[in-house]
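Milestone M4 deliverable, item 7.
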Amino acid sequence: MRRYSILVILYLIIYTNISAATNPQYSVIGTWEAKVPDGKTIVTFVFKENGSIDWIVTQKASASSKMRSHTAKAKYTIRPGINFINIDVYGFDVKGAQNMIFLGIIQFKDKDTILMEGRPGPKSSTTHRPKAFSKQFLEFKKK
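Output delivered:
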């Protein structure tokens, strides 16, 4: 009986986490913006329904300089995971980044706020997705 109870509890925990990660009322489609803790950088993601993404990094080098933006276009895929949503960003149009991949995790705080963390690297077995959030995650707000 006790073993059955543990299995039921485990199933409910997994099911609840998967349901939260795949909640149909929450969608990444749209424009999301996060301020990097350095205070000089803003990261914007524009997720499109066709699986493409604009990755925009806006930086201010010094207090007296203008803001400068750099945009990379790429493709993305999203898959539900057990605790988080898995995101892969690949196919970058930036010279030197065509063979790179970004493996990340996303968690919705609510429909207009997501936490995201990931690791860029070469398309190989040496690039690994984070298993949990560290202090390096970014909080994105929907615009």
